[in-house]
Amino acid sequence: MTNRRLVLIQGRGEASDPGPGNVRSISHTVASAIQAGFRIGKLVRIGQVDGRIVGYNIGHFGLFRGKDYPLLVRTRYGTAKCSLAEVAAA
Residue 82: exposed, middle, or buried by beta-carbon count in 10 A (0-12, 13-18, 19+)? Predict the structure, then answer.
């Protein structure tokens, strides 16, 4: 695995302010994923595709919000946002 630098791009925070309820919901979902054993670095499968958990989705807007799709899984096809129901331990 190569080392990559994470670059934070600061947004304006106006329309994207999640509010305390959404932050709690995302935090709870990510914590549930971790308790279920889906930690960063874990090998998983999405159907027949092998992948590795590379992070957690903390997004609070759009089609793939963190409360519904908390896992970021890197596969040979790219990185996907996944729900707990979509992945299985490899």
Answer: buried
Model pTM above 0.85: no
Closest CA to 70 of 84, 85, 49, 90: 84
Residue with tokens 């090998």: 43
- Give dist(CA 42, CA 51) in Å, integer: 8
> pLDDT tens digits for 31-61?
999 999 999 999 999 999 999 999 999 888 8
Q: Which residues contact 54 (CB under 8 A, 6 or more apart)?
A: 40, 72, 73, 74, 79
Average pLDDT of the segment spanning 19-30: 76
